[in-house]
Amino acid sequence: MFTSSSFDKTLKVWDTNTLQAADVFNFEETVYSHHMSPAATKHCLVAVGTRGPKVQLCDLKSGSCSHILQGHRQEILAVSWSPRYDYILATASADSRVKLWDVRRASGCLLTLDQHNGKKSQAVESANTAHNGKVNGLCFTSDGLHLLTVGTDNRMRLWNSSSGDNTLHHCHVCSLLRRAARHA
């Protein structure tokens, strides 16, 4: 089995034996991202990020969308399950925010990552934002202890996934790519 998603507003679950879609989830919005937990033993949920501000969780056992996570203000550009904890999900949005969720909780959101680690005034517009622009990529480290995010502000940030602290403040993606190209 493997999954795929598309701008045709679908998430498909494929049978690798027949190379046919075994199940299709249809959405009202364009699908930008999906992820199935690499560690889950107690659920078969696929997180789906769409052009809308809600994260949808599809249950492969029941064949239906089981929950909706609300809290972002714009489209969901990336989703990633923790490789360490079954029920922890990270979401990235065009609203410049990254949220960590425990999908078992009614309120869901555990924390919103803040690039300033709470040191700037709440009146500042960038307070409680992970980047100064859309956050269009994220992934957990293989041990699940950190979360790496990238944004349209050409910055990459490394976060402590337990505390939410920003541990990598000034890493420009372009300079990293230039450095990597020189060493290749």
Automatic annotation (TrEMBL):
Gene3D superfamilies: YVTN repeat-like/Quinoprotein amine dehydrogenase (2.130.10.10). The keyword DNA repair applies. InterPro entries: Rad28/ERCC8/Ckn1/ATCSA-1, WD40/YVTN_repeat-like_dom_sf, WD40_PAC1, WD40_repeat_CS, WD40_repeat_dom_sf, WD40_rpt. One of its GO terms (biological process) is transcription-coupled nucleotide-excision repair. WD repeats lie at residues 1-24, 69-104, 128-169. Keywords: DNA damage, DNA repair, Repeat, WD repeat. Transmembrane segments: none annotated. The keyword Repeat applies. PANTHER family: DNA EXCISION REPAIR PROTEIN ERCC-8 (PTHR46202:SF1). This is ERCC excision repair 8, CSA ubiquitin ligase complex subunit.
